[in-house]
Specification:
Immunoglobulin-like, 6-stranded antiparallel sheet, 10 strands, 4-stranded antiparallel sheet, rod-shaped
Amino acid sequence: MVSKFVYAAFTILVAIIIIVGLLGYFYGLNTSSTSNQTQTVSSTASITVITTVPASFEKLEISSAYANPYVDGIQTVVLNLRNTGPQDATVTDILLNGKPLPLEYVQVTGTVTSSTTYMGTLTVKVGESATITITFHTQLSSGTMYNFIIHTAAGNDYPRSVNAP
């Protein structure tokens, strides 16, 4: 996604190149000679333009993360994501304390690219949100800090710690 500023700057640069070229052309035609001798005037205007377009990037924010109490043999951790960047973000892995979570623990709500359970990719479109719910069939140790990392296809990691109730 290229900003309006880049387009405006490029347009101004092209206009300057055209003006310089026209000035060089007309300067070459408007030379006069006061004698009968032939005078050759040569003018060349050359400008090299190198432009770079800034790379797009993703930016996921974990807007909230919390662990629910252990009830009936199940404890869940909820991670709410929001894509605040200019590019869609694709979640490819979720790690708990540095290790990938088994897929059967994770369910997502959002724009999922394959199915309704986490199978390896979750796309969060620009401006949209997604909820990742991780279900444990054992009780997490109360008062223990659990470190989650959301890993994306672009290679970015988004960490968040959750304290078990």
